[in-house]
Amino acid sequence: MEKPQRNWDTKRVQKAQRLAKISNLMTGKYVETNQIITVLEALIAPGDKVVLEGDNQKQASFLSQSLNLVNPKKVNHLHMIMSSISRPEHLDIFERKIASKIDFSYAGAQSVRVSQMIEDGKMKLGDIHTYLELYGRLFIDLIPNVVLVAADKADKAGNLYTGFNTEETPTIVEAAAFKDGIVIVQVNEVVDELPRIDIPAGWVDVVVPADKPYELEALFTRDPQNITELQILMAMMAIKGIYAEHGVQSLNHGIGFNTAAIELLLPTYGASLGLKGKIARNWVLNPHPTIIPAIESGWVESIHSFGGEVGMEKYIAARPDIFFVGQDGTMRSNRVLGQIAGQYAVDMFIGSTLQLDYDGNSSTVTRGRLSGFGGAPNMGHNPGGRRHSTPAWQSLRDQDNALGKGQKLVVQMVETYGANKKPIFVENLDALAVQKQAGLANAPVMIYSEDTTHIVTEEGIAYLYKATSKAQRQAAIAAIGGVTPLGMTSTKESLDQLRHAGIVKLPEDLGIKRSDAKRSLLAAQTIDDLVEWSDGLYEPPMKFRTWS
Amino acid sequence: MSTAFLFPGQGSQEVGMLRAVPTQYIERIKKITGYQLEDLPENYEDTVFIQLALLVKGLSALAAVQRNEIRPDLVAGHSLGAFCAAVACKAITFDDAVRIVYQRAVLMKAAYPTGYAMGVIVGLTRTEVAQVVQDTFDEMHPVYLSNENCPLQHTISGEITGLQKTLAAAKLRQARTAKLLKVPVPSHCRLMQATVAALTPFINQITFHPTICPYLKNTDGRMTQDTEVIRQDLLENIAQPVQWNQMMDVAKEMGMNLTLEFPPGNTLTKLIHAKFGERSIRTINIDQHGVDDATFLYQKWR
């Protein structure tokens, strides 16, 4: 057989040609801040796959704003790959016809415009992925031609320090650097010596000092003042009826006030139950300020984080036994490894949602808002092939099946009436209408019913994994549905049966008095209390301060 | 930072609101349309008066604000307010806005001189209101679901006895408020389709100009700077629900963090507070603060 002749390095040659076009603008790997538009126009070709770094915390904001200013006659039809669509210009590039296609995971802050633009055909949707699917696909069939990322500091050679907010930067860079893609980095600061090297200069093609530091938001700070007694009641139920019941040792918490309440009850209510050292020891968690009292009172062994949190830097640096901290004394986060750990290496995920259907499927996609999801679909499911031997995992095992294995605990914690005073439980998820409107292959469900093992409401806990039929599952959800239309379908007889079978537990079944759920149980009742717990190391951002 | 200019529509008018309007504006209206605006209580029953009065109230304040060098990054007007918004982004001139609105109001009044109106329902979702409207629908007294002001505030438009029946049914389904609005025509529903057709040749003669900032569309909540799209929106909004809720969502996503609501009233500011809370967006209400204080606040916050 005759082998056809071909070149095996076309992409490498093309990359060299593109970089040659800007050689006159480069000093080493550096280009001037005010040359960035010319640089982008030279390095990005029509139709390129481009990763623009934006996740829910850190944003390559200088590069996104600059990309929006390129000439659409020169740069167009880009296929954007972004874990999070967060900023107006992320969509303006589609309005300006610089980009035409998108693959993404999360669009919370731009979800209405995303819906509109997909419906209007201004933005062609590749897919809405879970984080790990999106990161994985960067190495399979969404291999980028150009990546635009952000770092805190660079040295003269182009080595990068990404520090607390390393997040997914190394992963994005790797997908381009080793496949002849072009890596363009905006940096806050150029220094002679880096605290440490997070990304080596050899992986980087172009460094540009940004006009101002990249955008960074404190997304995981929950002010304890806003935690209600209803949330405290639910937190007590969860600690006793789930954490203690199953012996949950490793876990992830969502970002809501419900789980913040749990964090703040561990050192008080949890301790009174004698649970210290027995539950909630190993975490994959963003550095929630509300976890400080649990750390300080010795509950927490370790925390690996997806990203940083503004204000937590000094505290984390002073707690290297707990957090992942480099020799230089600053944290290294890693979103990809954190997501893998959260999906594959923990006993439990517990979070909240905006809607649950009567079967227990949940979604935060509501009418007209194509928001996608954060980490919940990764962490909120049971990886089918996993085998695991922790007590919590094994406690969900079907004892009648010789090959039966355990299951990850996936817990949804919701008040029966949501923020707009409408029932959380809906007959049909809005996700179905949004699917039709946007022409999606799959309805944007966040966590599927089959993966959901428990639902906690202020009425009680439904142990869904124990239900033996779909009807029983629905009855269990109805039994803790309160006075919502779904809850009203539950009869006393059905409730008694479910309680008898251990499928539903009310606070009294757990030995919890509703009147005991008081704010005084919280280990910290204000942001100020958190600062005090941290020995003054936690420095809350301005908007969370009650003092000046 | 992004500043939005917001202009209210019918329902916000108050007797006496023309007193503070400089007389040259009233005279200008008379000159263009032949209509003499007189601030008498009985005139507030007439949609031609109401629409011209609202227009001149908003546009005279706009001129004062513009003199103080305050510029919008986005403009949005609710129903009739859309014409003020179109002037604020310079898509049309003051005189052309007056011409179109006069024509629009006369046609609307001619189509439904009496017996029709609009109502508002607070505390139910759009799906819930749609259900009430469907359950109480009567062809002899038609009522349609119209504007979406915020997730739990919707309007209905139609024949007055039908409206009363639907509003009563909404109350039975736990609506917090369900009442008639001060709007004497059934705007923003299909009952106005013939009016749209009648207005088309008129609006098509008007010259539109390049805008200085994006305009938010009533009919589908999109943002645009395309003058033909704005022309269609101004034409068709009489017969389609105002997607105010979606317009404000888009404004927020575009970075809106300061709003100036033009007179009269504070309906749109209240909607911002209901939707986004009182902290995330700074609101300036010109009716409440006056142009000078509004300018001071704008300069402080901007």
From TrEMBL, chain A:
On the tree of life, the source organism's domain of life is: Bacteria
A single GO molecular function term of this UniProt record = transferase activity
| InterPro entries, A to Z | MadA (IPR005777), NagB/RpiA_transferase-like (IPR037171)
Q: Which PANTHER family match?
A: ACETATE COA-TRANSFERASE YDIF, MALONATE DECARBOXYLASE ALPHA SUBUNIT
List the protein's name: Malonate decarboxylase alpha subunit
User: What's the source species for this entry?
Assistant: Latilactobacillus graminis DSM 20719
Automatic annotation (TrEMBL), chain B:
One Gene Ontology CC term in the entry:
cytosol
Q: Any idea which GO molecular function terms this record carries?
A: [acyl-carrier-protein] S-malonyltransferase activity
Which InterPro entries is this protein grouped with? Answer: Ac_transferase_dom_sf, Acyl_transferase_dom, Acyl_Trfase/lysoPLipase, Mal-CoA-ACP_Trans/PKS_FabD, Malonyl_CoA-ACP_transAc, Malonyl_transacylase_ACP-bd
A GO biological process held by the record: fatty acid biosynthetic process
Its recorded reaction(s) are: holo-[ACP] + malonyl-CoA = malonyl-[ACP] + CoA
One of the Pfam families matching this protein, by short name: Acyl_transf_1
Where are the active-site residues found? Answer: 79, 188
Q: Which UniProt keywords apply?
A: Acyltransferase, Transferase
The UniProt record lists the Malonyl-CoA:ACP transacylase (MAT) domain at: 6-291
Task: Give the enzyme's EC designation.
Answer: 2.3.1.39
Describe the family membership recorded for this protein in Swiss-Prot or TrEMBL.
Belongs to the fabD family.
Name listed for the protein in its UniProt record: Malonyl CoA-acyl carrier protein transacylase
